[in-house]
Sequence to fold (185 residues):
Amino acid sequence: MVKLKKGGKKSFYEVKAPLTSAKIVLYGSEPAELNGKTVKLDLTRSLRGKSIEMKFRIKADGEILTAEPMSLELMGSYIRRMMRRGTDYVEDSFDAECRDGKARVKPFMLTRNKVSRAVRNSLRVATKQHLEGYFKTRTMQELFTEIMTNKIQKELSLKLKKIYPLALCEIRIFAVVPEVKKIEA
Fold:
C-alpha cells in the first residue's frame, strides 16, 4: 500500500479498458495509489438492453492505468424479466481451463416449456462438455469479448437445440479464478 501525503493534491486519471468503449476516469493522488482497485461497469446501454455488469482490476504501469477484466455477470433483473410461467430453467457451475488460466463459468438456460429432469440433465451435461472444449483453445481476453458479443451463447444454443429448443441461453457468470500459490512446508 502506498502512503499518502496528508493534504496531497488529487486529480483525475484516465484508465484504458480495451474490452469496452466506455470511458473510465478515477480520482486519486497518484496512479500507484489506484493500482489493484476494482471498478464495476454497467454495460446495459452498450449491449442494447442486455444487462451485464463487468468488474475490472486496475493495473498501474508507471503513469499508464489499464483495466483488466475480472468477471462478467448477467444481472438478476434481466433473468427475472426473461422467466415465464410454464417454463423450466437449467443452471450449472464449474471451473474450466483456458489457455492462460482458469475461469468459473455459470451457464443459464430457459426451456420453452416444462421438461423432464432427464432432458434438463442432458442439457446441463452437453453445455459443460461444449464450453470446456471451447475454452481450452481461447485466452481470457478472447472469451470476455465473445461472451459480450453473444458469439458463444449463439453457438451453444444451436447445439442444444437438437436436445431441446431453448427460449434463452446465456452465460450468467464468467469470472477469472485467481491462482492460489502453494506454500512449501
